[in-house]
């Protein structure tokens, strides 16, 4: 009878592989934690860059809006300066010309 050598069962294979030392396990954990911290810092840097872009855009928008409003203010001030109020004799009081309507709501 021919005897064939088969691979050991998986659990037995794991038992036969060399165990990591505590130092290797510790270094592996530190490396994972460090990579996670690095990812967090890089994500925060990217967020800061995006926020800086948005703030620069907002400042630019506010500056442009202020310029537009300043121009409108100047136009309105010029219109006001050019306005000449009518003389009192030209102003007609509308009250005497209004027809007196009988009050039917409060009549008894």
Task: Write up what this structure looks like.
The protein has helices at residues 10-16, 22-82. It is an all-alpha fold. The chain contains two helices and no strands. The protein has a domain at 20-86. It is elongated. Residues 99-108 have a biased composition (Basic and acidic residues). Residues 87-108 are annotated as: Disordered.
Continuous helix count: 2
The ordered string of helix (H) and strand (E) elements is HH
Structural class based on helices, strands and sheet pairing: mainly alpha
First-last Cα distance:
129 Å
Q: Rg, please? A: 43 Å
**DSSP, total strands:** 0
Poorly predicted parts: none
Oligomer: single chain
Query: What is the mean pLDDT?
Result: 85
Share of β-strand residues? under 5%
Helicity level, as a percent range?
55-70%
Structure in a nutshell:
The chain is mainly α and 108 residues long.
Key attributes of the depicted protein:
elongated; mainly alpha; single chain; 108 residues
Q: Layout of helices and strands, plus pairs?
A:
Blueprint: H1 10-16, H2 22-82
């Amino acid at each position: 009878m021919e005897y064939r050598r088969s691979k050991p069962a998986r659990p037995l294979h794991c038992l036969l592989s060399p165990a990591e030392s505590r130092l290797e396990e510790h270094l592996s954990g530190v490396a994972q934690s460090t990579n996670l911290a690095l990812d967090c810092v890089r994500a925060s840097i990217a967020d800061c860059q995006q926020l800086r872009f948005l703030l620069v855009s907002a400042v630019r928008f506010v500056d442009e809006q202020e310029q537009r409003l300043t121009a409108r203010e100047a136009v309105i001030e010029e219109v006001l300066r050019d306005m000449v109020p009518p003389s009192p004799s030209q102003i007609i009081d509308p009250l005497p010309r209004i027809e007196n309507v009988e009050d039917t709501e409060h009549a008894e």
